[in-house]
Amino acid sequence: MGQKLTIEPVTRVEGHGKVTIHLDDDNNVVESRLHIVEFRGFERFVQGRPYWEAPVLVQRLCGICPVSHHLAAAKAIDVIVGVGPDGLTPTGEKMRRLMHYGQIFQSHALHFFHLVSPDLLFGINANPEKRNVIEVAKEFKELAVQGVMMRKFGQEIIKATAGKKIHGTGAIAGGINKNLSVEEREFFINGKDPMNIDKMIEWSKEALQLFKKYHLENKEFVDGFAAFPSNHMSLVRKDGAMDLYHGVLRAVDHEGKKILHDIDYQNYLDYIGEGVKSWSYMKFPFLKNLGKTEGWYRVGPLARMNTCDFIPSPLAQKEFEAFKAYTKGKPNNMSLHMHWARLIETLHAAEVIKDLLHDADLQGTNLVARGNKCDEGVGLIEAPRGTLFHHYKINSDDLITMCNLIVSTTHNNEPMNIAVRKVADAMISGQRSIKEGMLNAVEVAIRAYDPCLSCATHAMGKMPLELSLLDATGEVLDRKLK
Amino acid sequence: MDRTIIATTSLAGCFGCHMSLLDIDEKILDLIELVEFNKSPINDIKHFTKMCDIGLIEGGCCNEENVHVLKDFRAHCKILVSVGECAIMGGLPAMRNGIPLIECFEEAYLNGPSVKGNNEQGIIPNDPELPALLNKVYPCHEVVRIDYHLPGCPPRAELIWEALYALITRQPMNLPYEVLKFD
Ligand code: SF4
């Protein structure tokens, strides 16, 4: 008679995700599943709303990176109002870019501080009780202050561009509703230490050093854990540079061969489909030319390092070269290198913010472009966790009739399931009872993989787990909690 | 004075209200000196290990587990606070209340342009591992008694801080008009 293991993050009880692992009579893993238990129905209930509400409505999907939804929706309705992805005024486009890179900066900084730093500072084998952000704050006050201030800086940029730190209103159809005042600019360039952009660049470099040191000391673990070949997808600028706000869609396979050739994302439906499985509310996207079994891919910082040809800012480009050299120019398929990639992007974001702050276009007064309206638009953006798709159709009354969303974490659905299976096969298959290490391993796999699996995991640091060993009648044989 | 014990949870919310709590920035470091966190996404405590002084609830109830968690919070928290529009009124997720649930499912899994033609068996997720959805999204005070409501989507960091600080220090709340925002 087979058995079933259930691993429940606490956050799942609160509506996020959980893992079940099915064992046969010899305790071999026959199946593992990551269930997403959340369903909201946005696609349906925004129907009937005026299109200009989309940027403020749909961002309420996620309060952790609302700016990404705000901007992806705005980019889609730019197309609807006939401005197209390339037709914004310089002030409109640059204000949005500033907002977006501010968001990348705060989200990555938060992630580094809350999620990665406990592992780096206390070690991955430290008592789990200790490996949380509060303990970091108590023992490494300086680093804690740094994390808090980096996030604050990014949030202030968002407030200055979007009007509010969370769920702002800055981006509107065809542009933006404010420019950056000279006082605001001064605050970010020459703000009292540490609140200025030069300090942020310096701290981003330090964070990278911290990771590199950790990598050097834990090479085997960082390189080997939940590593597996996969395809990778992201937007890149037309010339192949990293661009997190706009570009064409590119995918490469695990060897670096292009499998999606810099396409115009308005036609994404020709290239990407989504499958459905009965056991998860999250869908399973795939590249149509490769089909459901072969066509899945990863998105996010690691994928972006693998798809782009270079990073268009000097300090981050140097780091990018070192990152590429580590895998001899081939795509990097090591899950835990996601942290490394994320910190390179943090530095890049800080450099982009600095350039933008010195750009006089931000004080321009031509905020909104106009064009000829049509009834459909697609908006894509590279959110902190990967490519985000928004697609809307409207009727002659300007009301939304169709809304399709593919969010970053959804693209990573299959890869996360594979990561869990890898760990289950390696650590759980054939074991007689549950050990703490198994919980840890599954947790680290999902978290490193895509920390926004559940918002809480990303936001608040550790993902607590409950793992139950059940027999076929549902009786609990063993239970571990941490 | 003993440390105030705080618990927090996100039900059918977007985590923006938790993020807004983080937006108190440097004051976070003061906060962790004043309080001890019990059940919360911020730490490893899955089940309540003791009675708590303050419970902060983000999000309304959209599935049976939300209801279960909310009742558990009421049983273990002396003061329960609805934080943000979702907890207070159901918020944006409650926009589905006027629409039959099946239409929401059909749009997401059968008719959406990227699933159409790719979901050959017409699957709508229904595994027993998935918690049952409620017919509507309910505000928290329709499920349990709620002691305070903090408006906003999300409530501004200053509002959350002022309210929390008053509860922790057992002072009357001083919430000036300017920090009460409703968007
Ligand atoms: S009130 Fe607003 S910020 Fe808070 S959970 Fe709801 S949508 Fe998110």
List the SSEs and their pairings:
The complex is a heterodimer of chains A (482) and B (183).
Chain A: E1 3-9, H1 10-13, E2 17-23, E3 29-36, H2 42-45, H3 54-57, H4 66-80, H5 90-122, H6 133-139, H7 141-162, E4 171-172, E5 175-176, H8 182-190, H9 197-217, H10 219-224, E6 231-236, E7 248-252, E8 258-263, E9 272-275, E10 284-287, H11 291-294, E11 297-298, H12 301-307, H13 314-326, H14 337-357, E12 376-383, E13 386-394, E14 400-406, H15 408-411, H16 413-427, H17 436-449, H18 455-460, E15 465-470, E16 476-481
Parallel strand pairs in A: 6-11
Antiparallel strand pairs in A: 1-2, 1-15, 2-3, 4-5, 6-7, 7-8, 9-10, 12-13, 13-14, 15-16
Helix pairs in contact in A: 5-7, 5-14, 6-7, 9-14, 12-14, 13-14, 16-17
Chain B: E1 4-10, H1 16-22, H2 27-34, E2 35-37, E3 52-58, E4 61-63, H3 64-76, E5 77-83, H4 85-89, H5 101-111, E6 133-138, E7 148-150, H6 157-169
Describe this structure in words.
The complex is a heterodimer of chains A (482) and B (183). Chain A has 482 residues and is an alpha+beta fold. In chain A, 43% of the residues lie in helices and 18% in strands. In chain A, a hairpin with a 5-residue loop joins strand 15 and strand 16 (476-481). With 183 residues, chain B is of the alpha/beta class. Helices cover 31% and strands 20% of the residues of chain B. Chain B contains 6 helices and 7 strands, in the order E-H-H-E-E-E-H-E-H-H-E-E-H. Chain B has helices at residues 16-22, 27-34, 64-76, 85-89, 101-111, 157-169; strands spanning 4-10, 35-37, 52-58, 61-63, 77-83, 133-138, 148-150. At the A-B interface, helix 1, helix 2, helix 6, helix 7 and strand 9 of A face helix 1, helix 2, helix 3 and helix 5 of B. Bound molecules: iron/sulfur cluster. Iron/sulfur cluster binds next to helix 1 and helix 4 of chain B.
